[in-house]
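Q: Structure tokens for this one, please.
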Amino acid sequence: MSEESQASGEEAAGEVAAEPLEISPQAPPHHVRVNAIVRYSVERQITMAMGVLGLLVLGWLSLTRLPLEFLPAFSSSNIWVNVPYPSASPGEVERELVRPLEDGLGTLNALETLTSSASADGANVNLTFVDGTDMDLAAVEVRDRLDRVRDRLPSDVERIYIRRFQSSDIPVLRTSVSSNWSRERLYDFMEDVVQPRLERLEGVAQVQVRGVQRREIQINLIPARLQASGIDVRQLSAALRQGNLNVSAGYLEEGARRLQVRTLGELTNLQEIRELPIRGDGLTLADVAEVDYTFPERESWDYLNGEESISISINKTSTANLLRVVERAKGEYERLLASPEGQGLSLRHFHDTSVDVSEGLSELTRSGVLGGGLAVLFTLIFLRKLRTTLLIAIAVPLSVVTTFVFIYLLRQADLTEMTLNVMSLMGLMLAVGMLLDNSIVVIESIFRHHDELGEDARTASLRGASEVAMPIICSTATTMSVFLPVLFVGSAGRFGRFMGDIGLTVCIVMAASLLVSLTVVPLVASKLLRSEPPSKPGLLSRMVDAYGWTIALTLRHRFVFTVGAILVLVGSWKLYSGIERTFSPPSEGRQLSLFVDTPRNYSTEQRAEVFDQIYALLDGNREKWEIADIAHEYRRGGGRSRNRHGGSGNRFEIYLVPEEDAQKRASDIQAEIRDALPTLAGVIFKTAAAQHGPPGAGSSQVDVELVGDDLQVLELLAPRITGTLSQVPFLKDVDTSLESGAEELRLQVDAERSVQAGLSTQAVAQTVSSALSSRAVTKYKSDQREIDVVMQYREEDRETLDQLESLPVFGDTPLQLGALVQAERAAGARTIERENRRSKIEISATTVGDMPSFAAMGMVRRTLGGYQLPEGYEWRFARSWRDAEEDADSTMIAFLFAVILVYMIMAALFESFLQPFTILLSIPFAFTGVGLIMKLAGQPRSSTADMGLIILAGIVVNNAIVLVDHINTLRADGMSRDNAVILGGRHRLRPILMTAITTILGLFPMVAPFFLPQVFGQPEGRAAFWAPVGLVILGGLTTSTFLTLLVTPTLYTLVDDFKLFFERVVRSARSVGPRRAARDGEAAAAEPAV
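A: Here is the predicted structure, written as tokens:
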């Protein structure tokens, strides 16, 4: 700013108080440097027309080639290791499997948490790595460590499974298959026909068939024949292993040839197994056992709507279009049913992700189109010029098309994995209202040059667009910049990873909108702009005059307005901070889960009776509870219905009718079902509702962990903590991960007798295990796959203790097992859970009603905060809750960084450290609207709402940027400060109002269900999850726009006065030194010479 304009600004500081201002409605003429992009667009019309046409074609091609998903692609930072080890106790699994695995995996690079569990089925280890870790490299390192520790594991461990969870692991289609066929025929048809045909479909990555058991070769030993033949079961096991081998024996040099030598002894068919010699006298396996190729003993039962069924899950490849994959799969199912070999089969698709995707994308598309239509309609009503409105509306389709092109190009360059999903389309919907902002500001400036300054259409387009080029570039940059903290600071959290697609989409859309406003809009305006007779002053003119008078009033009473602004800020923060906080908004899906925990000593028949009773209850209330399908499963072993490491069993999945056909909320139905469940001795029921959004969204469960070195101490502490939490009024269904161990039979080996019989304790244990264990003894290799060979006593010969005690054990002399062991019955060990090599017990509770998550956490903290635990033992929230707290902290840090970035961009635009503070104060004024609208909608603060706050920080400053930049331009042309403030406000009122209202209208369909449920439906499911973003932006922008128009002019003058005062102090300080030196010189000259 020049010294003259600064001086005029100083003089103007006192003008307002002295006399009323007389201001011309026109600004003085000033020189505008034409922007190079604008000039090129207006002068190269044919080139631009071809460019737009090419963009439309590329946009359509890009749209058809972009993968369609429900949620963004993501990869978990966890690796799961599973080691199956059936027929073992949890204590044995912990000692033989878990501890060696912990030793081998505990020192992995970037490992954050190692969680393990030991159960009767085997060992599970969950490795959680630091966010940002290269998971491909981590998986390779995990395999390497497992290879090293393999020798420390029991020799009969067959497989170690390693699994990583990615978004592509979520099935796109789940189908239930039932039939009147025999079990053998149905299973063979699924494995040999259905699964291969589905796997051959384009875009299908994996087909999983659940409920099908693989047949195995069963060697059922006959005790009487074993005893009569004097055969020890250990001998049989050894004979099977040693008689089923192919061994590479080296090489033979035969003349000039070198031949590889292999000894072949693998069994090639079932008859060879039967005829396997087990003794030199011709005794074969068939002489002492029944050998069959059949199904193993059933371990689980699956049903859909009361009929036993098999479920098929289809996963797609990462690049395939979800809708097309599902369509192909359904077509293949139809062809199977129509074929002669498929007669008698019945299918039901009970979980179709394509429906969720189609509905979600349709909702967002409808909301976006409606929002864009409202914004354009308002522009037409406001301007009352169809040609101008169409000119502005061009920005919407061109910007959207450009967005598709950029996303496709970024994917081709491997710079992003973004797809078309609910998050990226949500970004489009958020940007719909803002798409018009830049075009409105540009066309308004062009109109002012044409109508008020009398320039021709071409000149007005060039100069008008160039005049506002820097302000709209800056305002667009502020909107885009707020997403950088989300990508860098928030990317570590779950919501940061999901919201990245929203941020990238908004950035691309806004950049496309900026490009269109500086190229297409001035080009079309230079052709379509026509001179029109001046219209009569209307409502808008009166609003402009009233606003100019209001600014003059605020400048005369700056102290009063400043105090009022401070009071508004204080009230805004109190209102906003008083809203309860939760992790994510409640967003119910139309699916319920009912977990059924039965005592482990229940027989399969007793467990089936419980499930039949519950199914009858649900099936008899289908209409009342709006149930579409009921799937349930139970397992032979019973016990806990939820495996915390990924497994499941003993549960009902209740699929409700779609939202559009529903009369009740899913949570209300859940409560009704819970109240109607019968009371059964020893049976525990738990219900849960499916949630939309990122993992963990909308959870109503509070999880607490007890951690310490000694599991027995934890088992004593857990009931006390559970009892304390049960007293909390807003918690229910308080339960622990402890479960009553299965009753077990303990055989205490008499060491002295065993030695006398020439047997070791290990030999006795191996004899019992060989007779009873269902582990595979060896493998039989068929043409297609490996088949387990299992050896054990016949089922009728291993039902009682007497039969077990009569088991022959061969040492120096044959003895019965009962002579060597003492049998006793006792409660078995529970599942053992550990974290970072310390024992752990989990305690869970469900919150009552819609209690916000942070309120529940605070209540638990207050309840357990003073609870005294022994030294070395602690309680803490489960990892998912700790992660959610970190997400909330990261989001607020991202908000602060966003504000700093916005300041930096504005400081660069205005070449001032002070003026950006004038604009930044628009942000706290937004909290007034945010607090009001969240209260009216009854919504808590959440991570989703915080994302709206971050976006809001980049939007609310745009109006003030345009206003302040124009005031600076007027002052640079010689106008006094206060006159420039008033005239700048008059000039920019219309574009500010238009841009704000079009953005608000663009967002209105997103939040409409909260205020007009009769028209737009109840805010449930997906709408309830993403609506808080729109609520925050809409409410904050509404109040911020109004308050910014009132407060910014006053703040501008106050900041300018502070700047002038500071400059005077600096000038005064600088002039003190020379004046003092001059006085000292004069004094020295006056002194007489000595």
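A few notes: Residues 592-691 form a domain with the Alpha-Beta Plaits fold (CATH 3.30.70.1430). The two ends are 54 Å apart (CA to CA).
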